[in-house]
Amino acid sequence: MAKLRIIFPQSIGVVEVELTGKNPKTLQALKSAAPFESRVNLWGEEIYFSTPARVAQEVAQDVVDVGDVAYWPPGRALCIFFGPTPVSRGSEIRPASPVNVIGKVIGDTERLKKVKDGEVVKVEFVE
């Protein structure tokens, strides 16, 4: 099965993402756009960065789990969630607006806290 590889060359290296079939149009748009580079933005305990993909909401979620990787349609961005955001309530993890979840980080999400705002990020798919 294919995986998404997100590379942070200036901090933590490779993060692999196990893909789900929940949002197939979103996944296909991202695969078609890859490989691509962007710059990291941080928002609470969320990493997000722009993508060349343009997709509408599919099966969008208001609340996500630690390690979820999702596409945010209004910002055309890929998001990695590893804790609460500024709009979270209690212990929930809440995106700025609904997102299309495409996968989950494989392994430890704690290391995502070392990623710095503005650093380069590379995205590719691997079989």
TrEMBL record:
A Pfam family: Cyclophil_like
Coiled coil: none
InterPro entries per UniProt: Cyclophilin-like_dom_sf (IPR029000), Cyclophilin_TM1367 (IPR025658), TM1367-like (IPR007256)
Gene3D superfamilies named in the record: 2.40.100.20
Start and end residues of each Cyclophilin TM1367-like domain: 3-124
Annotated protein name in UniProt: Cyclophilin TM1367-like domain-containing protein
Lineage, highest ranks first: Archaea, Thermoproteota, Thermoprotei, Thermofilales, Thermofilaceae
